Hints:
The structure holds 3 protein chains of 3 kinds.
Chain A: H1 3-25, H2 29-33, E1 38-44, H3 51-70, E2 79-85, H4 90-104, E3 108-113, H5 116-122, E4 133-136, H6 159-172, E5 177-183, H7 186-189, H8 192-201, E6 205-212, H9 219-229, E7 233-237, H10 244-253, E8 259-262, H11 269-279, E9 287-290, H12 302-314, H13 326-347, H14 354-361, E10 386-393, E11 398-401, E12 406-407
Parallel strand pairs in A: 1-2, 1-3, 3-4, 5-6, 5-7, 7-8, 8-9
Antiparallel strand pairs in A: 9-10, 10-11, 10-12
Chain B: H1 2-31, H2 38-55, H3 64-67, H4 72-80, H5 86-93, H6 97-123, H7 131-152, E1 168-173, E2 176-181, H8 182-204, H9 206-216, H10 218-223, H11 228-254, H12 260-274, H13 279-300, H14 302-305, H15 308-319
Antiparallel strand pairs in B: 1-2
Chain C: H1 10-14, H2 20-39, H3 42-67, H4 75-96, H5 103-123, H6 131-150, H7 155-158, E1 164-165, E2 170-171, E3 174-175, H8 179-200, H9 204-214, H10 216-221, H11 226-251, E4 254-255, H12 262-275, H13 282-305, H14 309-333, H15 337-351
Antiparallel strand pairs in C: 1-4, 2-3
Amino acid sequence: MTLGKSNITRRRFLKSAAAAGAASLAMPAIVRAQPSQYIIGASLPMTGPFATAGQLIAPSLKMFEAFTNQAGGIGGVPIRVAVEDSGYVAQNALANYQRLLASEGDAVIGYFGDSTGFMKLVAPELKGAQARLMSSTSFASELANPETNPYQFMAGPTYEDQFDILLQNIAAEGGKSVAFIHSNTEFGLDPIEFGKKRAAELGIEVKLVEATKAQGADVATHVTKLAQADAEYCILQGYVTGVWPQLIGGARQFGLPTKFMGTFWGMEKLIADRVTAEAGPFLDGYQGVMPYRYFYDSEEAPRYQQMAAFSKEHFAGTPLENYMPTWGLQAMLSLDLLAMTLAKTAEAGKELTADNAAAMLSEIKDHDTGGFFGPNATIKNNKIGIGRVYQYSAESKLFTPTSDWLEV
Amino acid sequence: MQFAQFVINGLMAGALYALIAIGIVAVYKSTRVVNFAHGYMIMIGAYLYYTFAVLIPDMTWAPSWLSSWTPEWVAQARVGAKMFSPTAALYDWIPNIPRIVFGLAGAIIGSGLLALFIERYLMRPLLGQSNFSMIMVTVGLISVLSGFKSLLWTGDAASVPHLTPNPAFRLDFFGTPIFIFGANFMSMIIAALIFGFIVYWLRHSSAGVAIRAVSEDQSTAYSMGINVPRVFAQAWLIAAATGAVAGAVLSARDGVSPSLGLFGFSVLAIVLMGGLDSFVGVFIAAMLVGVLEALVQWQMGGTWVEIAPYVAVLIVILIRPHGLMGQPEVERI
Amino acid sequence: MIIGNRKVSYLEDEKILNNGYKKAFVYTMIALAIALPFFADDYTILMASLVGIMLIAVVGVNVVIGYTGLLSLGHAGFVAIGAYSVSIIHNVLGHWGVPDIVHPWVALPGAMAVAALIGILVGLPSLRVKGIYLAVATLSANFIIIFLIEIDTFSQWTGGRLGLTTPDPNFFGWVLDSQREVYVLIAIFSFATILMVQNLFRTRIGRAFVAIREKDYSAEILGVSLLKYKLTSFAISAAFCGLAGAMAAYFYAKILPEQFELALSLQLVAALIVGGMGRTMGPVYGTIIIVLVPELLKIGMGAMMGNSIEAAQLRAPIQEIVFGALIIGFVLFEPLGISQIMDRFFRALNRWPFARG
């Protein structure tokens, strides 16, 4: 049997099956091409270990829906953000994605994933009609690669970039030694190898690399190891709400002088405020890298002001009325970039396929986000390599910048 | 001498394992049910403690003495104490006493009611049926409890007050600094005391004798006039109460989180390692695994710790099928 | 009282499909499965494939739990072994330059063999311990298998936590790279698996399993070698789970270790209990229920609450509660599972309008 011949049988089978499938849906082809409503799907961890994050992000996605529709949707077509729970299980998120495509078809124009795991699981599935432009909560370094992951982008720097920014900052302050404590997940492990290499280049000694459970870690043992390692700085990676505050609290109780630093997911003001209220002001001086401005930093940020006015109305009476968490900002910016790309694709008279959208995405240069970033954003390697270091003050309960915007 | 540090850490963790294990052994001894869902009952206990010790006292309608009981002398003493010093830890703890007591009471009563319900409506209908059915009911309970948990409480990894003051001690042990959290040390003492009390109670009280008689032979015990259903209820209550205390201690140490449920599986492994019906064997196994985990954490890092109890139990079961000190079951055809 | 069955030969007595309605039901289901890829939409294909993959594994679990009476809570480990072995064998063969068309013929039997070997290894404690001890031993084995897949030592083959990109099998020059095509493969194998296990229990081996289930020491006294048959049982069931894993690897473009953790083991056992242990059709009914209940819940809640965020947030907990309640409910009220209910139903149909029950 020759390959060519067998390919024909295969094609024929697929064709007849697809034709039959389409016919069974009894939907004229023209309607499928121009849906009355575009759908952006999202899987969020609304239950499970990172439920706090998922439950804070979900409302901001819905707000984005209202915000965009008020401004006329994408190319005149209104959008709907379809939020699903994944429980932070990559396979559930994949099932959500496949279900959405199977039931809504071409109306789905983009997706927002819940984890690095999902983005990696879905990447090889993104072929032909199954492909959509997507972003996620993840800043995993592996995803920022247009060659292997052409349809996936992130609205910020990778975890490796964030480590880079922190390590540069340590070197600039004259720091000589650092410890890495990370959760025993893909999320925690992501930048560790790079961090070791980068620290060596900068002449910083890595005194300890410690893996902990993502939740319910045995804090006493980890703090002990940190104390014995005697590092000037400690970078925490791979936590959302738990573990990192307890680690810092434990270290402070033993009077360790170690300076703690975090990356994006460990930099939320709501969590820091809550820890301060419940357990005391020991997070004072905690530093970390953040790609965005905090929502209260809205001077010279026209888009933040617009959003603030909108959210005051949209979230009236809820805690989100005056402050949008950084996690929500990240999701908003991701969808914002996604919608902008698609709108531009539509303007250019092209079909809203993942390929066309991905091509349009890579052309975003010197884009003024009107708030999120300090400098103008350029998408390079499907990421935006901008960030700066902030420091938390337990007294003012604010994160304030301690460095200039760094581009990596 | 860092070795000493990790042995101490291991013993402190091991005592908690032992405290959790009481619940599994007590239920098994009297009812022959191995409760796979015990870890999830502890999780519910922890969330109840969180509810009664943090959520309710912080409500606007709660009386102020419940959330922070600060008599004049405490407030004065607190001002003078240095941050993170043992005195400060003590005076930080005193205002929390009402909420800790309220929280513990809520957790124990809530878990107790839950356990009675499970015993009466899920376990007792299966009396006399195969072991398999009972195990599967507890496996089903895992999902039900964890579902109710997510329904009632959000996934916050919130912090809750320690049961005891939590000063940090920095000791010098032959030139090596040794770090001990006061609350962890006190939890070890509390766990050991509860464990000792329950073993003593089983040996010497009439209720304890009844439990042991039922564990020997249910139908004979019944015909000798022992109220077997009451013994079952007692065993489940013991499990619920010790589980609630363990949940409170664990959530104060590591934060309230759903991962407490998974904790139960490693304790199950420990119980089998010690021998299902032997309190002493289980205590030894708990301490061994606690120390083993701490040493693994020290030498090999956090990745390996997760499977340490499972590897240990496999090895022990292969050598001694009924655990370190368990009685082999005699089967007759 | 059961009346109204007239059988005139032993052959008739041994028939599986011993009444017309049952026959009609099974044949309709087979016809539906065959027709599916030609008319069903993507969503139906997705669901049918998930049912098929899980079905193969549950049939395997049925061999150990349902027929041999050994409680295992670690079968997801074997599914993982199958999924990873098949992918690794494909990769290795590709690396050696073996033509694609040969790969599945080596990889599928290879994966099943590896799973069976590991199954024997995990089954070893079953010779010394039973019941709860075995349950915990297998559960531990599941944790350890996942751990070994995740650690750095083997990550060069397994991809570690990052997961492994899986191959698209090439059967007779036909590359199965869409879910619709893989579905056909899954359907064929599910059917073959059910048939094989059904017939296994008409052989000496199968009868030995049942003897062990009823009372292992009695079986031994009657001359059934416990060593041989307990391990055979583990090997067969692990091999089927390995096959299910291989199908999962073909179906998904990538596999992650976390897909094969304890939760899957519990799902497999739950499907078996709900469907009916030690029954041929048990795994079929059970798997359909376990896979489709979440979907029905989603549709039901969507109809009641719309697509609000609150509905999305409530779904997972409710799903978990329903899942647990199904296990508990069946153990308490119908320990023989849905297949018993269905049997009763078919019998009643067959005898209508006469005696029921």
